[in-house]
# Entry
Amino acid sequence: MLNLPLVFLPLDTLLARKDELFTRSPRVEALTGVGSVAEAAALVGAGAGSRLLGPRLASAGLTCAIARNALEEAP
# Structure
């Protein structure tokens, strides 16, 4: 639909960023070891030194988190 590649992130890379998350789901943390897969994935996908722009947004069946790359200049 969006014609974008699907990227799989290894669990160990998500676990490496787990202390930087804003939110945590006890259920997800019990299943994966990461309190918010969406937030950890946003951080890993944005690269080393990246920062979350805010907590994840979640609704029925969809969760989204956005991170800023460390190399981008602040507005």
